Structure formats: C-alpha cells, structure tokens
Amino acid sequence: MTAYLARRLGQAVVVLLLVSLIVFGLLHALPGGLVRAQLGPKASPYAVRQLAVQEGLTKPLPVQYLVWLGHALQGNLGFSYKLNTPVSTLLGEYFPRDLLLTGAAIALAIAVSVPLGALQAYRRNKGVDYAFSGVLLALYSMPSFLLGVIAIIVLNIELPLLPSTAQQFGQGFGTDVKVLVLPVLTLMLGNIAYYSRYVRSSVIDNLLEDYVRTARAKGAPWSRVLVRHVLRNSLLPVVSLIGISFPYVVSGSLIVEALFDYPGMGLLFWDAEQSRDYPVLLGVVLLVSVAVVVGNLLADLAYAALDPRIRYD
Amino acid sequence: MTDASTTGSAVTGPTSAALDTAALDTAALDTAALDTAALDTAALDTAALDPAVAGMPANARPVWRDNVATFASNRFALAGLVALVVIALLCFVGPHLYSTNQEATNLINENLPPSGQFPLGTNPEGFDILGRLMLGGQSTLEVGFAVALVATAFGTFWGAIAGYAGGLLDALLMRVVDTMLSIPFLFFVVLLGTLLQPTLPLIVVAIASVSWLSTARIVRGETLSLRTRDYVVAARGFGNGHLRLVLRHVVPNALGVVVVNATLKVADAILLFASISFLGLGVPPPATNWGRMLTTGINNLFDGYWWQLWPAAIAIVATVVAINAVGDGLHDVVEKRLGAGRR
Questions:
Q1: What pTM does this model have?
Q2: For chain A, which residues score pLDDT lower than 50?
Q3: If you compute the radius of gyration of chain A from its CA atoms, what whole number of angstroms results?
Q4: ipTM above threshold 0.90
C-alpha cells in the first residue's frame, strides 16, 4: 500500500506541475500580453513599460514561472482587474458553493444510478431495460443547458413550484434548498445518464461470473445474490468512475451555474470570460484542475483500500 | 527505462480501460441485435477473417460484405444511419430547394409564430427558422465531423508513438494526456476560445484540443498489445523501419476501435459546440449554429416563443442520438471481428 501510495502521489504532483505550466503558458499566450490586457489598447508605451517592469514581466520566462509558481503555492494568484479583489479571496468565497452543488449532484446521481443500473442489468434486453436505456440515451444526447431549460419549463413555468434562478442563494437555509433544487436536478440527470450505463455493464459482467452460479446453486435467492454478491463487486468500479467523472461534473457545473445564475466558480469564470478578467479566468482553471487531481487521487486511494488486487499489483 | 514503462502502463491501464468501456458502452444499448447477428454469421467468421489477418486486399470483399451485414442487422444503428443521412441532406441540399434570406435582418417579421409563410416561425431578427435550422446545421455538422477527424488523427498519432516507443517517452506523453484530462474540458475550451479569435476553424481546434485525449489512451493501449504480436515481430525481422511498422502494421489493426471512438467523438463535439455557443463563444452573426439557436430560444423562454426553442433542441438531440446509434452498429462490427480473431 505504501508503495502504491507513494507512486500515485508522485504522479499527482507531476500532473499538478504540468497543469501549472499549461496555465502559466496560457497566461503568456494572451494576445498583446498581460499588460495590454490590463491597461487597454490606448495605453502609452511608457505606461506599458513601467507596468511590465513593476510586474516582473521583463525577466526571463523560466524565472517568471518560478516566481509565479511560488506565489501560487502561497495562495497569491494575483488581482482581479474588474472586481479589484485578490483572486484567492474570490475563490475562497465561491469554491465551497461548488462543493455543495457538485457534491449533492454526484451523491444523488449515485443513489439513483446504482439501483437503476442493477435493475437494467437484471432485466437486460427486456422491455424495462430498453425503456430506461432509451430515456438515458435521450438524456445523454442533450446539451446540459437544454436539460436545465426543460426542468425550468416543467417546474417553473408550467407548475410554478420553484424559482428559475439561484440568485437568491445565501439568504438562509430555506431559500438555499429551494433555489438549489433545479441546478442540482439538472446536473444530477446528466450524471445519471453517464453513471447508470456504467453500473449496468459492470453488473452484467458480474452476473456472468462463476460465483453467481455457485451462490444460486447453494440455494440463495436472487435478491440475496444480487445485493450481497453482485452489487458489492459491481460497486468497486463505480468508485473509480466517480473519480473519472469529476472533469465532466465540474464542466457541467459551468453550464448549470451560467444558466441558473448560481454564484459558484462556474459563474465567476463565465463573468470573467465576458469581461476578459484573465487573472480570475486562470485562477479558476488552476483551482478546478487541482480539485480534479485531488479528487481523482482520493478516488484511487479509496479504490485501493477497497480492492486488495490494486495494492499488490 | 523498462521500469518507467511498467509503472506507466500499470497506472494508466485500469483508467484507460474504464474510459474505453464507458465510451463503447454508449454503443452497447442495443445488444439484442448483436446476439442474432452473431448467431447468423458465426459460420462465416473464420472464412471471412483470414484474408483480413493476412492483409490481402484482393480478398477483402467478403469481410467488407460481412461487416455491412453485421451493421445492418442492428436495426437501431441502421435507423440512426438513415436519420443522419436525412439530416445531412436537409442541411446541405435543403437550402437549394427551400431558399430563405439568412443575411439581412427583417424586423417586420420578428418573432412570428409558425404559419404558411414561415413553417417554423421566425426568430427575433426576423429570420425564417426552418431556413436557419438548415444553415445552423451545416456549421454544427461541419464542426462535429472536423473535430472528430482532427482529434482522431492527432490522438492516434500520439497514442501509437507512446505505446510503440514505451519507456520514458511513453511515460512523458501519457503524463501530458493525464494532465489535459484533469483540466475540466469545458473550462479549457472556453479559455482557448477567449484567447483565440473565434472563427470556425479555431473553434474546431479548441474542441479538438480536449477531444483527442481519449483516442490517445485507447490507441496506446491497443499498440501496447499489438507491438508484441508475432506478425509485428516478423515484420520487424524483415527489416521494416519503426515508422513503417507503426503505420502499416500497428495502426491499421487498431483502426476498428478507433473508428467507433471517432463516431462517438462527433456526437460529443456537437454537444460541446452547443455548450460553448450557449456560453457566448462563436462566430458573429449572421452565421449561426444549433447551439446558438437554442440559446436564442432560451433567452426568449419567458416570452412564450416556443418555436424558437424546440426546432434546434430536437435537431441536436436527434443528430446526437443518430450518431450514437451508428457508433453502436460499428461497435457490433468491431466486437464481432475481435471476437472472431480471439477464438
């Protein structure tokens, strides 16, 4: 386990360094450079030069990278041009809301997908399986904002039950729950389409194993075989699936937050994109990437803890 | 060197296999058809596969015919293919039969509901929506297929080199893939779109920059298993160079899996294109695409202009479902050939 842990940690560090290199590279790929982005096209050459010296942009690129990385490691990601706030302060404010949104969506999606996938696997190639497969394929083939809009049409316009925006988030527990329902539902439905297909094939693989026949031959009823034997073994890959799905969920949250005005990192990113607020854009990309790497690492470690075969490889 | 290569493969192995299953599983929604097909043509398998293995193009026709039969026996896939052809014809030939003005705005006709003159109504600029659907479909389909082409070519190249070279180079190339995969793709595409001027080719590049990753992983995995096969070893023994070995012997044998993956990429690219259009990135009007049409519909959602939302919504979902269905049929074909080869 220690060897596995060390190897996996080492890999995560390498990936994180590469992520920082890519983000740094993008920062310097800006048309006109960072200073122009900050001062605008009409700034005098003198002012441009002065700000460049002041920000250390005249130094060699490797030196700039190390300085930037040093700052980033200390949590200094620069200042937002538009909001005039340190990027790290903004991220600290917005990030927890994302954990809430994506965490709730993933947890609920798993809670629905596991029984659904198991049911489909058990009744595979029968009416129920086809019906659900069809619905899930339709969900999977929809852009997530269309899914959100359909949710708004049904639960806001046709049946006025829920607010269509999450702008009022942060005004007490009751409102928070109410405004979160539609965003979480939208993000969750997309994930269910993704997870349950996977659970279905994982359960089918296990149903064909010898131990199922043995358990049946011993006289165990199907319900017991399914829950005690098959589902337990089928859930292992689901742990790593959650890890793999992080980039999808986080990407989905960008759309959902833009659609519902939910004040998370996605909305912060989207607003920054509209106003070309580069430090915020890059700070968000850096943080979501770190979150994905850490999330993946945790999922892999959980997998290794649950499945001895991984540890002893 | 060897050490690094085993580490690399041991760790990326399960993940890439998982991704692989997830991708192929989209296609596995209709497996009943596969079963019958397998029974029907089981007898032909051995005969059909031999020329394919030997790589004799003169005798390739039976394999080809067999593949078509497998594909056609999947009714879902066949329906998908027909739907896709109809949609493509509607978008590319349709404007020649049903000509509308999609250049100049006409504010007298803004937001009109469907009628005899405008079968699907008009949008806020007064454009006829049916005509706009055809125009938007052109750029949507073009982006989808261009992304799949570019991403598949690049990903195959990258993955084949990594898998064939092994060792340090493999570890390095695959760490780059891991890194790109951990940057949430939509954020990356939007960032690239903001940095680059949004023209259609640059949007293709931006989407392809996140789309090639799964191909690279799949091809690397295939190459790892193919490079130790006897025929590759034999070809090397004949004095073939590395490049020729990869291009002539390794890549063609991984092609089946790559083609299925590429098909699903078209669907994913169309969805991603719609998403970035929703976020406001895209070519300026009067150019359009289904994602932007959908966004217009959403912006006017509370005005009750339902005809501005549903045509584009149905077009996107129908196209993506059809492409996934075609991927399903191709998956059947590949699965059967691989299954026959392993027996």
A1: 0.82
A2: none
A3: 24
A4: no
